[in-house]
Amino acid sequence: MIGSEFKTNNINIAYIGGGSKGWAWTFMTDLAIEENLSGTVKLYDIDYEAAYRNEIIGNSFLKRKEIKGYWKYYAVKTIEEALKEADFVIISILPGTLDEMEGDVHLPEKYGIYQSVGDTTGPGGIMRALRTIPIYMEFAQKVYKYCPDAWIINYTNPMAVCVRTLYHIYPKIKAFGCCHEVFSTQVLLAEMLKVLKNIENVNREEIKVNILGINHFTWIDSASYKNIDLLPLYKDFADKFYEEGYETEENEHWINNMFKCANKVKFDLFKRYGVIAAAGDRHLAEFMPSWYLKSPEGVEKWKFNLTPVEWRRKNKSELEKKSLRILNGEEELVLKPSGEEGVKIIKALLGQEDFITNVNIPNRGQLEGIPMDSVVETNAVFSYNSVKPVVAGRPDSPLINIMTRHVLNQETLLEAVIKKDKEIAFRAFINDPFVDMDVDRARNLFDEMLANNKKYLDKLFC
Amino acid sequence: MIGSEFKTNNINIAYIGGGSKGWAWTFMTDLAIEENLSGTVKLYDIDYEAAYRNEIIGNSFLKRKEIKGYWKYYAVKTIEEALKEADFVIISILPGTLDEMEGDVHLPEKYGIYQSVGDTTGPGGIMRALRTIPIYMEFAQKVYKYCPDAWIINYTNPMAVCVRTLYHIYPKIKAFGCCHEVFSTQVLLAEMLKVLKNIENVNREEIKVNILGINHFTWIDSASYKNIDLLPLYKDFADKFYEEGYETEENEHWINNMFKCANKVKFDLFKRYGVIAAAGDRHLAEFMPSWYLKSPEGVEKWKFNLTPVEWRRKNKSELEKKSLRILNGEEELVLKPSGEEGVKIIKALLGQEDFITNVNIPNRGQLEGIPMDSVVETNAVFSYNSVKPVVAGRPDSPLINIMTRHVLNQETLLEAVIKKDKEIAFRAFINDPFVDMDVDRARNLFDEMLANNKKYLDKLFC
Amino acid sequence: MIGSEFKTNNINIAYIGGGSKGWAWTFMTDLAIEENLSGTVKLYDIDYEAAYRNEIIGNSFLKRKEIKGYWKYYAVKTIEEALKEADFVIISILPGTLDEMEGDVHLPEKYGIYQSVGDTTGPGGIMRALRTIPIYMEFAQKVYKYCPDAWIINYTNPMAVCVRTLYHIYPKIKAFGCCHEVFSTQVLLAEMLKVLKNIENVNREEIKVNILGINHFTWIDSASYKNIDLLPLYKDFADKFYEEGYETEENEHWINNMFKCANKVKFDLFKRYGVIAAAGDRHLAEFMPSWYLKSPEGVEKWKFNLTPVEWRRKNKSELEKKSLRILNGEEELVLKPSGEEGVKIIKALLGQEDFITNVNIPNRGQLEGIPMDSVVETNAVFSYNSVKPVVAGRPDSPLINIMTRHVLNQETLLEAVIKKDKEIAFRAFINDPFVDMDVDRARNLFDEMLANNKKYLDKLFC
Amino acid sequence: MIGSEFKTNNINIAYIGGGSKGWAWTFMTDLAIEENLSGTVKLYDIDYEAAYRNEIIGNSFLKRKEIKGYWKYYAVKTIEEALKEADFVIISILPGTLDEMEGDVHLPEKYGIYQSVGDTTGPGGIMRALRTIPIYMEFAQKVYKYCPDAWIINYTNPMAVCVRTLYHIYPKIKAFGCCHEVFSTQVLLAEMLKVLKNIENVNREEIKVNILGINHFTWIDSASYKNIDLLPLYKDFADKFYEEGYETEENEHWINNMFKCANKVKFDLFKRYGVIAAAGDRHLAEFMPSWYLKSPEGVEKWKFNLTPVEWRRKNKSELEKKSLRILNGEEELVLKPSGEEGVKIIKALLGQEDFITNVNIPNRGQLEGIPMDSVVETNAVFSYNSVKPVVAGRPDSPLINIMTRHVLNQETLLEAVIKKDKEIAFRAFINDPFVDMDVDRARNLFDEMLANNKKYLDKLFC
After folding, report:
1. Which chain A residue has its CA at the smallest distance from B271's CA?
2. Long-range Cβ contacts of C180-184 (<8 Å, 24+ apart)
3. Which residue among B106, B168, B180, B283 is the active-site one?
C-alpha cells in the first residue's frame, strides 16, 4: 500500500456526548498531535456545561506549542447545530445516567446475577439497550436530515445495538462502531513474544489478526507476527499462565486499574474453544453462562473485577475535579497518543492513508453463519470515503451458537422498541444466558428493572 | 385432491428394531386393518429372539378374520437380509440399552438437573445422540448399499439427529422422521372446540395447523377448524385453564399414563410467546432453561411427570409378559387404529392418496431463520414417491433463538462423532441450556456420563 | 385430508377489470354453479359501461334455475367502492389498450423480433411491465387502505411483475397469481396415458406434478398418475410425436384456436433439458433465444401461432357483440365449469376444502437457486385463510440460468419505475434475450416503443 | 499498516507450465530483482525441452550482477517432482495446443460468431473450459497428495473455471487466481488525472478501486486518488473520448500491440451501466451479446483487435527464436519489473508486507447477489499465510444478470465434466450469449468443435 498522506483542512466534526470527559479528551488529544488534519469540532452534550468546559479545554490546546493539529472547538446547544455540515460525527454518550446504570448492574445481584460490566448482555445490557435504541433512532433521523453523507463513528455501548439501530432507521447511513477491546489482546500477543521468544518491542499493530465475532465477544482464529504463526505459541502461553494468569504491562496504565485483568478467562476460553478470545475478561465473562460470574468470590479467583457503579460515580467526580483544575490552569492534559484509532480512521476516510482494523458494522457477508444485517465485528479496509469489511470466515458451531443467541436477542430488543411491545422485550430478557431462573422471578426482576428506567421507558411501554 | 385409492401388493418392508414391542405391534396392527396394502415384513432386531416373537405374532394375524391386509412376517438375522429389496424401511430402535438410558436421565440429577424424558436435549439427549450417530451412520451406509431407493421412516429419538445423520452420510437418501407429538395438540384443540363452543366430534385431522419448529419443540402459528380461527379461542382456553390445567380424554388412553400431562406448560408457553407449543409438556419443558424442571416438586406443580427409567424397565417387562401371553394364545392384540400415521404415509408414497402431515426432514427452505440442511419439523405433502415440505414461514426471533441453540448443538455433536473429537462434544454439552454450572462441574458430569456409555463411545473417543 | 365442505354466505368480492368480458364471464359462470358460496360481487372497470353490462349479465343468472350459487352484482364507479369491505379481490385488467399492445407485439417485428404473445418477456413484455407496475403500485396502496385483510387473486400479465409489485408496496398483502398454463400440460399428460397405455378418462387433477419455475416458464420434474411415474412415459411420448407434434383434444375447445399448439416446442425442450416444460408453446418459445421465433415461417414449422393484435381486436369486437346479444336475450352464457380454479381456491381460503395447485407468489424458500422474494410458480397448499407454497426443489443450473435472467430483469424494471429512471429500464431491455442486436438499434427500438406508450410512461420517464 | 519486511530464504516454488516462455520469463525476472526472497524453482512443463531451456535461462541470471534475488532453477520430468515440498505452485499452462485454440476461435466464425479472445466465454471459452477442467481436477488431486499446504497461484484461463475446479476437488486448497486486466484500468485512471487535472506521475497502485465481478468482467463502482473521487471525472473522460477513444501510453508497451485497445468499449459500457468496466476491451466485448463483435468491421470501428490464432503461432515462434538467442548468449532478458504482482503476493503470504489487490477466489460472501462458492474477482487482503477477500458489495441487477449467466454456465460445464455428460455441456453451450442461433445449427457447431477437441474430450464424452 503506497502511502498518500497529505494535509486536509476545514474538516467539520460533530462530537455528540463526551460530557463525561474521558473519551472526549482522548479524542481531542489525538487530534492535537496529528499534523495532517485541522478544522472545527462542534461539541454537543445534553449537559451543555460539560460540553462548554470541553470547548475551553480544546481551544486551550491552541496555545501549546507542541500541538501539530489546529482545531477550533464550539459547544452548541442543539444537536442540529452540531450535525449541520458535519463531515464526521462522533457519538459517545451514556444512555441514561449512572442512576439507571446502577439498576442495570446491581438490581440483578439480589437475584444472584453478578455482571462485571452490565452494558452489553445480561439484564443490565438488555435494559441499557432498551434505553439506547430510541435515542439512536432519533440520531439516525437527524443524521438523515442534517448530514446524510457524514461518517458516523460510534463509541457508545451496547455497540452492536447502537449501530444496528442506526442502519435500521437509515439504511444508507455511513456508520460504524469502534472498540479497543481487540487492541489489548494484540498487546498481550506482543508481550507473549517477549516472554516466550525474547522478541522485544513489538507494536500491537504488527500483530496481524483475523477477527471474527460480535462486539465484546470477538475471536481470533489466526494471528501472526511477521512469519511467526502465533496460535501454537498461544497454546503454550495459555498453558504456562493458566493458573496464575498473566498481566500485561501496558494494560495497567491504559485507562484504569478497574479494567485490568489477568487474562485467566481468556486462557480458559482458549482451552475450551481452541481459538483466542479477543476482549477484556470482564466482557467475555458476560457472554458465557455463569462460569466466571457465579459469585463475587468466583470473580476474584478468575482475577478480574466487577465494576461497581459506585466506582463509576467516584471516577466521574474525579474527572470533574480534573476538568476544573484544567480550566483553572492548575493541570494540563498530557498530549500523547491515546492508543485509540479514531483519528487514524478519519485520515483513512479522507484518503490520506489506507488502514485495516476491526470494526462493528452490519453483516454483509463478512461473518458466515451469523444472520445478514446483524452487527458483527471483523477487520475492515478503510480508505477514501469507504469502509469495506474483510471476509473473516465461519466461526466454529459452538461459538456461532453463543453469538447467535445474543444477535437474535438484539434483534428482539429492536423489535420490542419499534413495536413498543414490552412482552417482546421480556422474551429477549428470558433468553439471556444470565436469566436462568424461574420465570416468575424473572418477571419480577424485569419489572423492577423497568421501574428503575421509567424516565426512559415509560412512554415506550405504557 | 381427488382420491386415487387402489390396491398395492407385494410390498417389501424392513422393520429395524421393534424388539421392545410397543412400536412394532402398533405398526403390525395398522397394517392388518388396511385393506389396500399387502406384502412382506422382514423383522430385524439386535435381539433376534424379540424379532422372532414378533414374527409369530404378526403371522398369527393371518388366522383372524377381521383382518383386511395380508402380510407375511420374517425375522431375519442380519440387517442386510432385511434391507435387500426393501421398498420401505422402518427404524425404531433403542440406541443403547436401558442401562445407558438410566445414566442419561439420572446421573445429572446429582447435579440438580432433572430431565422429564432425557432423549432429545439436556445431558441425556446429548449422550443419547453421541451413541446414536455412529449407529445411524452405519444404517445410511447399508441403505446406500442394499436399498438405495427405499423410503426410510424413522421413529427413533433423538429424531433430528437420526435424520440429520442419514442425510449427512447419504445425501440422496429418501428418509424422514415421524413423530406423534403434534397429534395430541390437535386433539387438545378439538376438545377445546367442545369445551368453548359446544362443537363435538371433531377429528384431530380436521384441525388444520401450520407447524414450525424442530422435533419436540414444534409450534403452531395458525390453526383452524373449518372457517374458525383457533388462535383467539386458544387464548381464552389457556387463560381459563392456566391454573388447573386441562387434561384431554384421549391422551390418557393413548399410550400410557406416564406420558399424560395437564398442558400447563403449553398454556404457560402460549402466554409467553403468543403461539401454540405443539408437543407434550414433558418434551417442551426440556427445551427451556430450568423454568419447569427446577425440582421434582416444581414438576408436580406443572402437572406432568418425570419418566424414571425404572418405569421403563417395568413397562418393558410387562410387554414381555404380554408377548408371552400372546404367543401362548392367552391374549390377543386388539386390532384397532393406533392413531399413528405410518401406514397412511406408505399409502401416499405408493400413490394411493395424497396426504399432508408434519414430518422431520432437512431444511430446504421450509423454515426460515433456521440453517439450511438442519432437520426441522413442518408440514409436508406426501404423494407418489415424493415428500415435499410446505414453507412454514419464519418463527419469531425469540423462538428461532431457542431452536438455533439446539440445532447448532446437534451439528456440533455430529461433527464431534465424525472427527472423533471428545472436546467438540464437550463444547456442545456446555452449550446445552441445562448445563448451566461451573465449567469444572460440567466436566465432571460429562466424564461420568461418558463412562456410563463406554460400551458405545470408548472406541469413538479413545 | 378430511373434507369439511360447508356453506359460506355473504361473501364480498371485488372484481377489478373484466370489461373485456372473457375472464369475467368465466368467473361469474363458475360462481353460479357452485352451491356452497353466495354473496356480492362489485364490478369495477375503467370502462364503466363494460362493468355495467357485466352487472346485468351476472344478475340475469338469478333467473335461471340451473344455478346453485346466488350472487348479486353491482357495477361501481370507483375502485374504492369495490374494495371497501371486500373479502376477495380479483384483478384481471388489460394494462393499457390494444393500441399499446399493438406496439408491444408488432413494433419489434421491423427489427426482426417476432413475439408469439408479447406480454411476459421480450420487448413487448418489458413495455407492458413498465405500464403495469405503476397501476399495481396504486392497487397495492388502495388495498392497504380499503381492505388490508382481503385476499387478492391476480390474473393479469405480466403475472410475476404484478404480484412482485403488490408485495413490494404492501409487504403483508395476501396476494397470489393464478395461471392455467400448467393445466393444459396436465391434460396433455392425461391424454398421453390414453395414447400410450390405453388408460382412459383420467382427469387432469389426477395428474400429480411438481411444479418449478416462473410464470409461463414452469417445469415439471416429477409427475405421476396413481403409482405410474410419468417421466419415462413422456420420454417415449416426446420421441414418438417429436416430428408431427401432438394436439390435445381438450386444448382446442378450451379458449380458442389461436392459442392452440402441437406441443412441438414442449417436446423439443424435453429433449434438451430432460424435464417437462409446463406452459403453452407460445409462452415457452418467448423465454428462449430465437430458436422457435426466428421468423413467421419458423413458427409455422413449430406448429404454434403468433398472436397478432389484429386478432385480439376482432375477438374483442365479437365478445362485445355477444355481450349485446346476451343483454338482448338473444343468447345465453352456457353454465359449465370453465376449468379455471378461482372458485375452488376461494372455497379453500374460506376453509371449505383444502386444495393444492400451482400459484405465483414471492419466493420464501420454495424455489432453491432463485432469489428470495422474486415471484415464482410452484405448488401451494390452500387452506383456511392461508396459502403455503410447497418446497419444489432446485431446477438444474441451465434452467436456473434462464429463469434468473428474467427474474433479475423484472427486478430491474421495478427499480426503473420506482426510481423513475429510463436508463435503468433500458438496461433491462438490452438484457432481454430477444434484444440481441447492435446497441444503437436497440436504443431506437426502445425509444420507438416508449413513444408508443407515452400516454402511460411520459410522466414516469419525463 | 506497519511494514515488516525481512528476508525469506529457501523458498520452494513449483512452476507448472511456462513452456510458452512469456509468463515464465516475466516471473523469473521479477524474482531476480527482489532482494528479500531466495530459493529454488522447479520447472515442469509437458514439453520438457521448453522447461529445460527455462532452467538454463533462469540459472544464467546468477551470473548477472544486477540481480538481488538468488534462485536455483531445475527442470523436472514429472509434476510430482515439482510439487513435492513446494511452498508455492505457479500454474500457467495452455490447456490443449494452438490447434485446439484455433478451433475455439475460428470454427465459430463460419457461423457468424467473432471472438476477440475466445478463452473465457463464447463457444471458444466453453470448449477451452471442457479441456481444462479434467486437467485441473488432476492438479487438485496431486496438490492434495504432494503439497497440501502449498499456496497455488493460477494464471491460466479460463481463470474462474480453473480455480473453481481446484476448490471443488480439494475444498481446503489454498488457491487463487491472478489477472492483470484490472491494472490497465488503473493505468487508464492515472492517465485520466493527467489529461483532465494535470496531475502527473500517479502510480497505478495509488488508484484505489473497489473491484466487483468475475474474471474479465470486473467492474469498479468506486475509485479514488488521494481524496479525489474518480467516478465523476471518469464520466467527463468517457464523454470526451467516447468517439475517438483513448489509448494509454503504457498499455502499448505492456505486452504487445495485439492486446491494445482504445477503451471505446469501456466508455460505451460506462455510458450504459454507470460504473467502470475494468478489463481490456477484447475481454469485455465477449461478455455482451453481439454489440461489439457483430463483424470484423464492427470490431475495427470499436478500435480493438480480434486475436487470430495465426498471430499466436507467430508470436510463439518468435519467442522460441528469442529463447535460442538467449541460450546462445546473443541476447539477454531485460531485468525490469514486469508489472505483475506474483512476487509481491508471495512476499505478503510469507509475512513480509501486507498487500491488497484483486484476486479470483470462491465467493464466501464478498460478492452479494452471486452464488456462494462460484469464483469471483474482488479485492483481497494478503498477509502471512492468508488471503481474505474484501466485501465488495452488490452489483446492480443488470450486471448481476450478466455475471450470473456466465457463473451458472461455468457450474454447468463443471457438472458436465464430473458426470461425463455431453448433453449437460450442450446446455451450457446454448446458454452462452454468443450462441444465439437455431438450435440445430448450434448443435452442428458444438459437434464440430468437439471433434476438434477429440484428443482431449473423446474419453470424457464417449
Report:
1. A423
2. C180/C339, C180/C340, C180/C341, C181/C215, C181/C216, C181/C218, C181/C278, C181/C279, C181/C280, C181/C283, C182/C209, C182/C211, C182/C218, C182/C220, C182/C278, C182/C279, C182/C358, C182/C377, C183/C339, C184/C248, C184/C250, C184/C251, C184/C254, C184/C280
3. B180
